[in-house]
Inverse folding.
């Protein structure tokens, strides 16, 4: 797969799995068991945009390095 598709798949799978973990923990165990997956979901909402910003910055750096400069 292309790098764009790999990145998109990684974000989507991670977000779906954390939501599923909250739902399963809440329905199969005591409500307190859903706390860890819920915190993980919040972590995804913090680190996901940070990683996307990093990817954008890195791609911009690569594009700048690949294009010739006009002096």
């Amino acid at each position: 797969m292309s790098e764009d598709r790999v990145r998109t798949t990684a974000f989507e799978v991670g977000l779906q799995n954390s939501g599923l973990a909250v739902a399963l923990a809440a329905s199969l165990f005591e409500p307190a068991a859903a706390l860890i997956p819920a915190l993980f979901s919040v972590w995804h909402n913090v680190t996901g945009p940070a990683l996307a910003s990093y990817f954008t910055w890195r791609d911009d750096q690569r594009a700048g390095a690949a294009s010739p400069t006009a002096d």
